[in-house]
Amino acid sequence: MRDNQKVQKKVTARITFVCDGISSQFRKVLNPEPVDLISHFCGLVLEHEPVATADYFTGPAGATHLRADPLTQKENPLPMPHNGHVLLDGVGPVLLYQMSERETRILADIPGPSLPSDGTQLRALVRDSLSRAAPKHLYPVLHSRLMDAVDGAQRLRCIGSKFIPATANRIPGALWIGDALNVRHPLTGGGMTIGLWDVVHLCQQIAKEDRSPRALSRATAQWQWDRRSRALV
Fold it and tell me: Would the keyword Oxidoreductase turn up in this protein's UniProt record (predicted)?
């Protein structure tokens, strides 16, 4: 090739994996239907002191039967420290889980496709949901700490919860996996789970076949069948 000559070559892969998550830029190629926004998770952090006893580290028995009672106002206020909590009596589900010994994440699910544009109204809505989820007569210390956390938070961080059913892949040479293919409610972190299992099942199927287009089509069809049980929830 001479210095003044340019040669262009086009290189294509036999298969391309699309795994850019819930905000996939390529999903519309597979599924042009609009994404349903079903709710918003509003999050903040509750700061506290570590629980005073070490009995919570004694294994399943300790994690199941022990309670953080009595509590001081500064001690970890969760009914069962070091365990995840889902409270269902709020405006929507409320998640409480520790990120460290001194910090607990609070996630309040607010149903509906939109949130109040006014920050004061949004804070009141989250406060009401937390108050219902952890009523004062059942969880006096937790209730007080949650109210203080909402009132003291500089801002509430919110992210939309979307629902996208899986679409049969009819585009040769491309595969959408995980949240790029379908999205479940983030309540249980199911998007990461199904994404990892998609990889497992795909590797198992592709390893059994040669690299011809027909074989890859057969492998991906079997993969879509195998993933159903984990993708349903």
Answer: yes
pLDDT at 65: 47
**How far apart, in Å, are the Cα atoms of 96 and each of 58, 167, 180?**
21, 33, 27
Instruction: Tell me what the pLDDT averaged over the chain comes to.
Output: 83
| Cα–Cα dist 58/101, whole Å | 16
Cα–Cα distance for residue pair 187/179, rounded to 1 Å: 14
Which uninterrupted H or E stretch holds 197? Answer: helix 190-208
Pull the structure tokens for residue 108: 């309040």
- Cβ(86)–Cβ(189) under 8 Å? no
CA triple 63-134-69, angle to 5 deg: 45
This prediction has a pTM of: 0.72
